[in-house]
Specification:
With about 100 residues, this protein is α+β, with helices and mostly antiparallel strands. The chain is about 15% helix and about 15% strand. It has a domain at about 60-95. The protein has helices at about 20-25, 40-45, and strands spanning about 70, 75-80, 85, 90. This is dUTPase.
């Protein structure tokens, strides 16, 4: 078994096409297919075992209650007991 010196410089593989081959490639008809966007591919891609939902999801939106506040940093609605300090609309998690 021969040993291989992986640190030795490697000879570059040079591919020289003949002039006839290059002309034939240029004259060959090209595919008329357009580039496909990755987002388009994601729409038709299905994961095995995944459920396909045909209907729209709907969620009932409940208005903010009188004892709730919206955090000025994370924009989540919290109960007033989660306020970091009185009079400041910042939750304990963001403070």
């Amino acid at each position: 078994m021969a040993t291989t010196d992986y640190d030795a410089p490697r000879a570059a593989a040079v591919e020289e096409d003949s002039l006839e081959e290059l002309k034939a490639r240029r004259a060959a008809p090209r595919s008329g297919a357009a580039d496909v966007d990755d987002a388009d591919l994601a729409e038709v891609f299905e994961l095995p075992g995944a459920e396909q939902l045909d209907g729209e999801l709907s969620v009932a939106v409940i208005p903010m209650q009188a004892d709730e506040f919206r955090c000025s940093r994370c924009y989540l609605v919290h109960h007033r007991s989660q306020r970091a300090a009185a009079g400041i609309d910042v939750c304990r998690d963001c403070a």
